[in-house]
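Input (DNA-binding PadR family transcriptional regulator):
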Amino acid sequence: MDKEMMKGNIDLILLSLIAERDLYGYEMTKKLKRLSDEAYSMSEGTLYPALKRMERKGWVTSYWSAPEGERRKKYYTMTNEGETELERKQKDWASLHSLLHKARKSYDT
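Output:
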């Protein structure tokens, strides 16, 4: 998987994961690896600065939780602003995908 393409879409990827349910950092990295069939793994050095940036922008908030018998984990949840941003980014991605499809088809005609 092209790491440069992934780097440009980290916010979209993380917001998409968090939209489903609140997640903690390590859980996000495991899920990304599983969803990509082991083709992509996000390092902590990429994940946590991205989460902090999204928190500063108001797209996510965080809270600490310690389920019974487990150690404390920092969970991230999406805000209304984050939902709006996710929708915007998904529309941008769909527009890009459409453009690429049209460009490819233009050679067929």
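The mean pLDDT is 91.
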